[in-house]
Amino acid sequence: MVMFLFLVVALAVVVAAVTLAVVSGGESGPLPEVAPERLQDPLPPDRPVSRADVESIRFPLVPRGYRMADVDDALSRLGAELAERDARIADLESALAGAQAAPHTGHAPHTSLDKPEQEDRP
């Protein structure tokens, strides 16, 4: 019987302590929202992305894997740069094909930097 009374009093003390902690702790209000963890090493905005930039990307982990917005941003940037490079390569290849297809004449174009000879004037 003494043990039962001791447990009831201990339970009452614990409930009172928890109630007091909850009531007195409410003055400061709820905790402020924490900014979500973002990508620590984003791709450089001021220059083209290099292989080292891609290899150094580390996405922060979230409960279900990676933050989709970070991955989407990185993939969009890489896709845009690859499309730009593909277009540049296609332009250069077409210019090269046009230069190779041009008929070759026996005369080389005048590329000398010397002054042209002046004609004799009467």
Describe the structure.
This protein has a domain at 38-100. Helices cover 52% and strands 3% of the residues. It is built from three helices and two strands. It has helices at 2-25, 51-56, 68-101, and strands at 61-62, 65-66. Strands 1-2 form a two-stranded antiparallel ribbon. A hairpin with a 2-residue loop joins strand 1 and strand 2 (65-66). It is rod-shaped.
List keywords for this structure.
3 helices; 2 strands; mainly alpha; two-stranded antiparallel ribbon; 122 residues
Q: What integer is the average pLDDT?
A: 78
Shape: rod-shaped
Contiguous helical run count: 3
Helix content: 40-55%
| Total number of strands | 2
Largest sheet: 2 strands, antiparallel
End-to-end C-alpha gap: 140 Å
Flag low-confidence runs. none
Question: Briefly, what is this?
Answer:
With 122 residues, the protein is mainly alpha-helical.
List the helices and strands and how they pair.
Elements: H1 2-25, H2 51-56, E1 61-62, E2 65-66, H3 68-101
Antiparallel strand pairs: 1-2
